[in-house]
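General statements about sequence and structure are easier to judge against a single worked case. Part of our work consisted of pairing the sequence of a single chain with a tokenised description of its backbone. The amino acid sequence and the backbone structure tokens for this protein are reproduced below.

***
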Amino acid sequence: MASLNFNASEIDTTSRETIPSGTYEAVITDSEMRATKAGNGLGINLTFEILSEGPAKGRKCFTWINYENASPKAQQIGREELARICKAVGIEHLSDTVM
């Protein structure tokens, strides 16, 4: 167990309100492939940064994509999400998450 001296009332949390619904231009700034928590699959962590002007500009968004998973449904959903991202950026064949 870690010993902390943390007072949440001293932290301004208003700058990280929910990003409003909408369509944003963004760039993937980081990617990492790693084992699933259970250790029986692989996933991809992606970090997006919003480029569009407005209050969300510069905000970072994160997603986890199940690439290989013991659950066929989880793997299907993950690969569908990855395919949507690839199609959005004009990539048909992906061999590396870093370009």
Summary: The chain has a mean pLDDT of 90. The beta strands are 26-35, 42-50, 60-68.
